[in-house]
Amino acid sequence: MTRPEPPTSPPGRPDLAPASQKGGDRGGQGEERSLAPPPETGAEGMNGPRSFPGLPRRVPRPTGSLAAVARKYAAIVATAVRHRMAYIGDSLGRPVFFALILFVFCRLWQTVFADGRAPVVGFAARESLWYLVMTEAILLSAPRLQGRIDEEVKTGAVATLLNKPCHYVGYHLAFALGEALPVFLLNLAVGVVTARVLIGPLPVAPAAVLALFPAVTLAMTLSVLIGLCLALLAFWVEDAAPFFWVYQKMLFILGGLMIPLDFLPGWLQAVAGWLPFRTILCGPARLLVRFSVADAGSLFLWQAAWIAVFAVVTVALYHAGIRQVESHGG
């Protein structure tokens, strides 16, 4: 009984030949090829720095038209607003603390300006308390970024955001602004009601109300960018909380949280004038109490300039961090 011949490929179609014929005459066995990529060596391979599993070689950039990118980040803001509104009860402690602060400072300013004492650079008890309403409303609305980004870096969760079709910095900026919006409106409502009850209403020009919307928006944007800069230091340090502590104290003093910068000595006012902190708290609050078109224009220019500076610094820190990021777990 004769053994049947193995099938051969049709003429002109060597791709249909069996594996034993493709692999050459090696004892009837074809060459096995591995589909796994060769191991990497060198500075970026086995001997290079460790990286997150799935970390892309190049960070994806948002693609599409400007309108599509704007819609993408607007959706992130809307998602953050809904998230904050769903857990708005977690933020109710801040308005209660806010009302307590206003009560204490109302009594303080009424004592300072008692017996008909003249206003200080245009600030009396009423103006000083309404100034505090705006500064505290902005400060208490700021989202806490240090714990969030620290956790993402330490656990390796940052890798999941790097693969999303949006920039890591842009995502956190949009999400933080969305979280701050409802909290700010809640704090502002509590502050306005409390101040009216304690010391009475403040006459506000309609132009001042219109100017406050962009001033507060730019102030919060700048505050978030500074927070992102400090939080991104988690790529190099284990805990970025001390940097936030120093930043908050700078806001208290050079940002004019409790008292207007006009009350400070002249040399300290000059120093504060060249720093970004006053454009976050003191600038918007002065528009509420002592509005002028010149002050509003100057504030917007300073805010835009500082936003541009910290946007560049934040993106630079981010790209430098992901190049040497190291997973601490997860």
Count of helical regions: 12
The percentage of residues in β strands lies in under 5%
From the alpha carbons, calculate the radius of gyration and give it in angstroms: 30 Å
The tally of beta strands, per DSSP, is 0
Descriptive report:
The chain is mainly alpha-helical and 330 residues long. It has one domain (65-322). The chain contains twelve helices and no strands. The relative contact order is 0.12.
Give descriptors for this structure.
330 residues; mainly alpha; 0% strand; globular
Layout of secondary structure:
Blueprint: H1 19-22, H2 66-86, H3 93-112, H4 125-140, H5 146-155, H6 158-162, H7 168-198, H8 206-231, H9 241-254, H10 266-273, H11 282-289, H12 293-323
Helix pairs in contact: 2-7, 3-4, 3-7, 4-7, 4-11, 5-8, 7-8, 8-11, 8-12
Short structural summary:
The protein has 330 residues and is mainly alpha-helical. It has 12 helices and no strands. α2 packs across α7.
